[in-house]
Amino acid sequence: IGIGGRKTRINALVDTGNRLRDPLTGRAVVVVELKHLAEIIPDPLYTALAKFSDDFGQIDSLLQELDWGSRFCLLPYASLGNTNGLMPGLRPDYVKVTISGGQLNLHRVIVGICQEPLDSAGDYHALVPPDVIGAVAKEHSMDTAITKRGESLNA
């Protein structure tokens, strides 16, 4: 994942349950644990996101100060035990995925920021929607079987 000249590498899982989309743009959302974005998010914004609990006020002024307002969005979501959640999201410069010996560039995706670990074993720290991987793989004539649940990859 690259933002503003900074990049980070994260192990991810292709998750058939991830159907999250930005309601305004229709872009797919790659959910990433916040702590694995520390290298690419400015420190004050990282600290504010770590404390985020549906209160946009503090983050809004910080985004304007850091000139990150155009990169940020709020993503409504529902999950088990949370029917009306808001997840902070960032528009990265790029997301590249390495899988099956090849590299895919995911176009027009949002990085949704999750404060909690996604995998208790720590094997992956991001969830990639299968339809995004499948569509890009098709463009590059790669094996689309990579969308099976449980296939891990590097994002």
Structure characterization notes:
- By secondary structure, this protein is of the alpha+beta class.
- The protein is built from three helices and eleven strands.
- It has a seven-stranded mixed sheet. Strands 1-2 form a two-stranded antiparallel sheet.
- Strand 1 and strand 2 form a beta hairpin.
- Helix 1 runs antiparallel to helix 2.
- It is globular.
- The model is unreliable at 144-152 (pLDDT under 50).
Helix content: 10-25%
| Largest β-sheet summary | 7 strands, mixed
The unreliable regions are 144-152
Q: What is the count of helical runs? A: 3
Strand content: 25-35%
Termini separation:
7 Å
Structural class: alpha+beta
**How big is the Rg?**
15 Å
Q: If strands are numbered along the chain, what order do they take across the biggest sheet? A: 5-6-9-4-10-3-11
The general outline is globular
String of helices and strands:
EEEEHHEEEEEEHE
Instruction: Round the mean pLDDT to the nearest integer and report it.
Output: 84
The tally of strands reads 11
Provide a concise account of the structure shown:
The protein is of the alpha+beta class and 155 residues long.
